[in-house]
Amino acid sequence: MSLPTKAMRDGLLEKRSSGLLQLWKKKRCLLTDEGLRLRSCKGPAAGHARSPCAAWSSGSRSKELPFENMVTLDCVEYKRGLVYFTVVMDTGKEIDFRCPQDGTAWNAEIALALVRYKNLQAVESGRKRHISAAHMCSTELDNEDL
Questions:
Q1: pLDDT by residue (tens digit) across 25-61?
Q2: Residue 46 has what DSSP assignment?
Q3: pTM recorded for the entire structure
Q4: DSSP string across 3-25
Q5: Strand ranges (E), the chain
Q6: CA 141 from chain center: how many Å?
Q7: Alpha-carbon distance 112 to 105, whole Å?
Q8: Straight-line distance from the first to the last Cα atom of the chain, in angstroms, rounded to the nearest whole number
Q9: Lowest-pLDDT range of 32-41, 64-73, 119-128
Q10: How many domains does the chain divide into?
Q11: For residue 101, which of 86, 84, 122, 118 has the smallest C-alpha distance?
Q12: How far is Cα 47 from Cα 65, in angstroms, rounded to an integer?
């Protein structure tokens, strides 16, 4: 059973398309403790000041970028009031993003969440190794008594 994901941030982010023109497209993003969820900002709600994109719903199609598949976040550059950064996936794919420089930048929040996730995975892995080693030692001791 998996625990419900905690939403850390919700808002707009621009992602560079992978097509020939590599246009910047606005995406509605949800940063959770498991990764980043992206959804297109198309339709009548896209220009509305209060609701930049339609609300998240279970039926809406979104692209998932789980932290387990992310390697790092790098290439941070500041230009004309925007922060440009790249998420590198374990397949080698690089995904470019940009966001406004004012306030808390998305790149910092994603990087911190990624580090937190990787640290929790390392602790969990270490705990499993420790339990496995302790089990192996107790099994060896039990066999010596026979």
A1: 999 999 999 999 999 887 554 444 455 565 555 556 7
A2: G
A3: 0.73
A4: PPPPEEEEEEEEEE-SSSS--EE
A5: 7-16, 24-32, 35-40, 63-66, 70-79, 82-89, 94-100
A6: 44
A7: 11
A8: 39
A9: 119-128
A10: 1
A11: 84
A12: 25
In the chain, DSSP finds a helix count (H) and a strand count (E) of: 1, 7
11 contact partners, CB below 8 Å, separation of at least 6 = 28, 29, 52, 106
Here the tokens at position 62 are 């979104």
Structural domain harbouring 19? 7-145
Two structure tokens written together for 89:
């996936």
Q: What's phi and psi for 91, nearest 5 deg?
A: -85, -5
Evaluate whether residue 1 is within a structural domain: no
* CA atoms of 32 and 9, how far apart (whole Å): 7
Structure tokens at 99: 């966001």
Collapse the DSSP code of 142 into the 3-class scheme (helix H, G, I; strand E, B; otherwise coil) and give the result: helix
Provide the β-strand partners of residue 12.
28
CATH number at residue 22: 2.30.29.30
The structure tokens listed for 82 are 């925007």
Residue 52 lies in a domain: yes
CA dist 95 and 100 (Å) reads 17
